[in-house]
Structure formats: structure tokens, C-alpha cells
Amino acid sequence: MKPVILSADGDSVVYSVPDIVADHLEDYCLEFCTEWLWKSPEAEKYRRDFGGYTGVSYNEADFIAYLNQHRFPQEPSVLLKNLGWTGERLPEEYKSLPYFNF
């Protein structure tokens, strides 16, 4: 398990995720938000009607739930630390971690 930082235009949150997810974080995040959310019947709860068009509403915790329930149930990802709103300025000790903002 390796640490990564995830956010959804809000707090930056450090999670421990399976090594392969950390090593290919962008691929897994894009798979979640461009494929799974739109095509999987299990993702129906994230789809919304926004006055004539369908969109999705989710955050980084939903991505972690996806990993834990659908991709890596035998290696559950866990929250390590909420860094709060950091904008573009991560604390020095976290700058080298893989990062994805949804």
C-alpha cells in the first residue's frame, strides 16, 4: 500500500491505496470518472439530471469506495490524513506523492 493525494476541488486528502493504483493513479482515476460512472449500473446513484442533460456528481471518497467495492476489495484503501484546502501549495512532506484532482 502506498500513499496518494486526492481532491475534488476541495480539501486535499491522503489515502493509502494498493501499490498498482498509486503507480498508475491517473489511469485508475480516469477509468472511474470517464468509464465506470457512465456505464456501470452500480454507478447509477452518481448520475444526475441537470435540467436537460445528464451529468455525474462525485468526490474523492466515492473513488475510494469504488476501489474498495469493485476493484480491490481484498486490499482496502483507507484515509490517512485530511490536509485541508491546500490549493496548489501542498506541504513539503507531501509534494512527492502521486496526486489527482477530480
Note down, in words, how this protein is organized.
- With 102 residues, this protein is of the alpha+beta class.
- It is 31% helix and 27% strand.
- The chain is built from 3 helices and 6 strands.
- The strands form 2 sheets. Strands 5-2-1-6 form a 4-stranded mixed sheet. The protein has a two-stranded antiparallel ribbon with strand order 3-4.
- A hairpin with a 4-residue loop joins strand 1 (2-7) and strand 2.
- The chain is globular.
- The two termini are 21 Å apart.
- The relative contact order is 0.30.
- The model has no long low-confidence stretch (mean pLDDT 96).
For the biggest β-sheet, the strand order reads 5-2-1-6
> Which percent band covers the strand fraction?
25-35%
Counted beta strands:
6
Indicate the mean pLDDT: 96
Largest sheet: 4 strands, mixed
Low-pLDDT residue intervals, each spanning 5 or more residues: none
For the CA atoms, what is the radius of gyration?
A: 14 Å
Q: What is the global morphology?
A: globular
Measure the end-to-end span: 21 Å
Question: Which quaternary structure do these chains form?
Answer: single chain
Chart the SSEs and their pairings.
Layout (H helix, E strand, L loop, with lengths): L1 E6 L4 E6 L1 H5 L1 H15 L7 E3 L4 E3 L3 H12 L6 E7 L14 E3 L1
Parallel strand pairs: 1-6
Antiparallel strand pairs: 1-2, 2-5, 3-4
Please give a quick description of this structure.
By secondary structure, the protein is an alpha+beta fold. The chain has helices at 19-23, 25-39, 60-71, and strands at residues 2-7, 12-17, 47-49, 54-56, 78-84, 99-101. The strands form two sheets. A four-stranded mixed β-sheet has the order 5-2-1-6.
